[in-house]
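Anyone up for a design puzzle?
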């Protein structure tokens, strides 16, 4: 697996490739990320991932500083799953970066409580797309709001990249796999598991829902 850290080098390397399937990540990789890599491998193309913890999408400095890092393990895992190359830029990728503002619809999502988050996401994704020029790029449905905004951004700006969404991968207790899960307490994990169980139950009984049933399940949480 080829490891590239300089974005100019990646641009030059990209010129040698006909097609590229791209998986952008912030590292601390797990089975969910590997599902994206495996999906990317199902296409007849070079498979590349990126690892960059993007400070632009954190509105809490402590959250950024405490974001889990496991670079050596990440590289080993990508190599094991047959990733062809990995792009690991440093903070210089942010120099003179074009700032992208998320649409007003982000304010109806969790952007209301995370000011600047989706601006940061779209800004770095746009930059990574400029560098890697992917034929297609893969995102998990776990971050559905992010996925929706990226799809809309690509469509509205006529970017020549196909956005492919991949189903959420869950732990045995139903909790969606996430790099932040290792910061949850046992109590938090139990609550998250119960929440997924309740939402699934409501979905399975959607044809006979009532306010009484919904309130009962809310009380159980």
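Challenge accepted. My sequence:
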């Amino acid at each position: 697996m080829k490891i590239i850290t300089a974005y100019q080098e990646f641009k030059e390397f990209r010129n040698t490739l006909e097609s590229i399937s791209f998986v952008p990540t912030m590292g601390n990789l797990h089975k969910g990320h590997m599902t994206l890599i495996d999906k990317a491998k199902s296409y007849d193309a070079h498979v590349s991932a990126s690892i960059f913890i993007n400070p632009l999408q954190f509105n809490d400095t402590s959250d950024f500083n405490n974001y889990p890092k496991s670079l050596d393990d990440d590289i080993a895992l990508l190599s094991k799953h047959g990733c062809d190359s990995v792009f690991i830029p440093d903070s210089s990728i942010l120099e003179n970066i074009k700032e992208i503002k998320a649409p007003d619809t982000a304010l109806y999502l969790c952007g209301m409580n995370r000011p600047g988050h989706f601006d940061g996401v779209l800004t770095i994704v746009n930059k990574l797309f400029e560098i890697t020029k992917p034929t297609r790029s893969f995102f998990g449905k776990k971050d559905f709001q992010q996925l929706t905004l990226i799809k809309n951004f690509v469509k509205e700006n006529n970017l020549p990249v196909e956005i492919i969404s991949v189903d959420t991968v869950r732990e045995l207790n139903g909790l969606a796999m996430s790099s932040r899960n290792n910061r949850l307490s046992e109590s938090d994990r139990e609550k998250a598991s119960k929440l997924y169980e309740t939402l699934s139950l409501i979905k399975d009984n959607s044809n006979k829902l009532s306010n009484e049933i919904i309130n009962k399940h809310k009380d159980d949480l």
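A detail worth pointing out: Residues 186-204 form the longest helix (19 residues).
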